[in-house]
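Minutes, structural biology subgroup

Action item carried over from last meeting: produce the structure token record for GntR family transcriptional regulator (Streptomyces ureilyticus). EB confirmed the sequence was re-checked against the source entry. Recorded below for completeness.
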Amino acid sequence: MIHLDRDAMTPMYVQLANVLRDRIRRGEIPVGRRLPSQAELEEETGGTVSRRTIKSALEVLADEGLVQGVQGKGVFVIALPAPAEE
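Output recorded by EB:
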């Protein structure tokens, strides 16, 4: 289950991108693997976010060069995120 804080100063799409980035970093979603679909992510958040929010989170990860969409197949991890700064 993905828990996002509606009252946080950080936009929900950024929170979701952070959760997905952490899953990629930890190897829960390895390079070459498909991310959960928008419908699966909507279910994982308990239906608390819109498809547009999910799409925005995926766009953030794509802009970072971590994921790439493949028409008709889904969004796949293509790279690991840079190590988190301590």
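Discussion: The two ends are 26 Å apart (CA to CA).
Next step: EB to file the record with the rest of the batch.
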